[in-house]
Amino acid sequence: MNQHDFLIALLVFLVAAVVAVPVARRFQLGAVLGYLIAGAAIGPFALRLVTNVESILHFSEFGVVLMMFVIGLELEPRKLKALKQSIFGYGSIQMAACALAIGIVAALFGAPWQVAIVAGLGLALSSTAIAFATLAERNLMQTGAGAASFGILLFQDIAAIPMIALLPLLAADGAGATAHGPENWQTAAKAVAVIGAVVVGGRYLVRPALRVIARTGMREMFTAFSLLLVVGIALMMDAVGLSMALGTFVAGVLLADSEYRHALEADIEPFKGLLLGLFFMAVGMSIDFGILAQQPGKVVGFVAAFVLIKTAVLTLLAKRFRVSRGQWLLFGLLISQGGEFAFVVFAEARTVGLLPKETEALLVLIVALSMVATPLLLLLFDQLLAPRLNAMSKRPDDEITNHHNPVLIAGFGRFGQIIGRLLYAQGIGVTVLDHDPDQIEFLRQYGFKIFYGDATRMDLLEAAGAAEAKILIVAIEDLDDNLGLIDKVRHRWPDLKIYTRARHVSHVYQLMDRGIDANSYEREMFEGSLMLGRKVLEGLGFDRVEARSVALRFRRHNIEAIDRFYPYYKDQKTLVSMAKQARDELEEMFRQDRDQRRKQEDAEWS
What we know:
The chain is mainly α. The protein has three domains: 52-393, Na+/H+ antiporter like fold; 395-524, NAD(P)-binding Rossmann-like Domain (Rossmann fold); 537-606, no CATH class. Helix content is 72%, strand content 4%. The chain has helices spanning 3-26, 31-42, 53-73, 77-82, 84-108, 113-124, 128-137, 144-170, 174-177, 181-204, 206-215, 219-239, 244-254, 261-285, 289-294, 296-318, 328-334, 340-351, 357-393, 414-425, 437-444, 458-463, 479-492, 505-513, 526-539, 544-565, 572-605; strands at 407-410, 430-434, 450-452, 471-474, 497-502, 521-523. Strands 3-2-1-4-5-6 form a six-stranded parallel sheet, sandwiched between helices. Helix 3 packs parallel to helix 13 (244-254), helix 5 runs antiparallel to helix 16 (296-318) and helix 16 (296-318) packs across helix 19.
């Protein structure tokens, strides 16, 4: 490819990504599906704007390598040790169960036993890139489904290498393959040596090198070294037939407790995002629409059967993997697709004579289409199944037995807990309602009496003793639920005194509309921010009395401004004008204070 062709291809990729991804996000399809659609559109089986798919796919796998390095940076070795059960326990069970189920179905369809084994092992692998991108996009990494998926995907990266090494033994001339015993031992020794070099180098050589480069003060050199580190490790692992992604993951883990962790992550992140996007587009380009057009029913049937079998197996295993009941199907769908290593497994199987070319092409198409199907299935899950599953798995409300306490707290997150602890310490009876079962079980260990239930339900509040209580503290974070509860309580129990958190100034004005005065609400960030501001002033040389005086005057001015702005808060133009005027008044007030202090100091010296 000459320079002109390269620039044209680069232009095509960038235009396709810039057009397809925002459109996909606009229709809530997700960025991954946007990249896949863009790749399918510009590939050799559609518009034919780009045809060198294999080279692009091979190059773009570097995006997966960078992603694994960044993930490694997030995990310190002690955290990784804590995940050993999910990696080796969950991962091995998933691989065995999925490979067995898919292999049996393939054999029932008439595939030779060697082909059935290859199909089962290859299709048991899942896409690290798609699964991790989806977990990050949906903020699921810290959930039970996310943790189990992480362990399984990492095990698959480890298992892919011996899987590929096993293929020659399955070939028809497997006896000949075993004749290379010494050569296999040499390869294994090289692999061990390279892994050892990565571990030792990451622990004892890379950190001093990073320290030297950081001292130069040249950001571009740090970025260059970050890329050199990842590329070098990837090539070393590839040279001995090991997973490049696994090698860079190990390097990332070794540097996770380094002082340069965040700088490395910041430098790698832009390259990772672009190359991952290129990888997804390359997968879309690899979809052979020729085979799909010739045998649409057969191909779609195979893809549907594959995804269904894998999802069913994973969903059945979810309980054993400690995934919460409401996430069982979500977990199954997250890693139901084929993986990047499946392309390598099937290509190697064809090379050693296990797979005919036509079978390999069909399996590659099944993997690619399953990757496209995953975002669509997750979208359908969100729209159709998630609400019903959440309702089915929802824990029944607790039976509230002690309903004579003078104080009710609705919501027991960080805000409500501080109030509750203060009241508990004074021996004041409190009834607490919250809808987070994990939070409730955790806090009950510390002796808090908390009941599970939706605090916005009037029947539950009545059972909790709202009719006899003196005070209701609304500590619910969600703005609509917060205001909705206040409205309903005001109507049902007008004499019940309400205290509430306020998210921001706009929320304050909506509370004032409901008759909540300044003595009955507290802005959740205001006092803490003001206290930190006092400490900053002291750090800049203000004495403690002066810093306290300045903070108190600022507080008083801010509260007065809120009262003054309230009649106009729905008139944005007037509100902005008044806010600017108040800011100028505040600056002038403090300027006069500074001038007055200088005059006093001069008078004292004279």
